[in-house]
Amino acid sequence: KMRSFAVFAGLLALSASADAFTSPLQLGGVSRASLQAASMRNTRLPAAASPRPLRTAAASLSMKEVAVTPDYRLALGAIGLGIFFNQDLHVGALGWPLVILGSFLVFQTTQIRFRFTDSDLEVVRVDGLADEGLADSVESSGENVLQGGGANKWSFSSVTNWEFWFPGFPILVYFKETQTKPEGQIHFFPIIMEGKELYEQMFTKMGKSVNPKIDPSEWDDTKPLSPKGFKKLSDKVGL
Question: Which end of the chain offers a freer environment for a tag, N or C, measured as fewer CB atoms within 10 Å?
Fold first, then answer.
């Protein structure tokens, strides 16, 4: 009986091994059955998908678009200064215009972004709030009617000069380009975005300006309330 049981177990084991060898084997995504069928039909098997080439860091950086983070400090500062003139100094002629200007800048800060590519600066309009960069929906900001007309998009190669007032205390940015007009078109924008981030992009991509500019690494030393910044301000005004 024991010998019969051993023979029976051996037959079961051979049967399982035979099933294992005759079942389809996955070889690099192609089954054994597919190999046999292909050899019988003398057909060519589809080549295995080759891995996609990895993009280098330099290539990824060159393709990157940077949308400068919005910043409400200029808008809220104008509103606060307007309230101060109204309530404390009772100078409504200055106070109310500042409150209106600040309210307008709050709306613009919510809607407008500066987008930098490797070759262009574009002013775009976003739909919805976004703490950083762009919201889900982005569209052109339309014609620049007040400053020369044309689309709000300019190549860096057309910029002949740019200014930034002021590093460490950003309020207003200016640049002149020859794309809109051959003789040159100037543009002014209130800095309703993160000032240091904007300065770094302009310093890196717009090239040299008529007046020398500080390196972005010196930004913190130009803040009026920093020790070095206060000393520079004192020297300029003669304190």
Answer: N
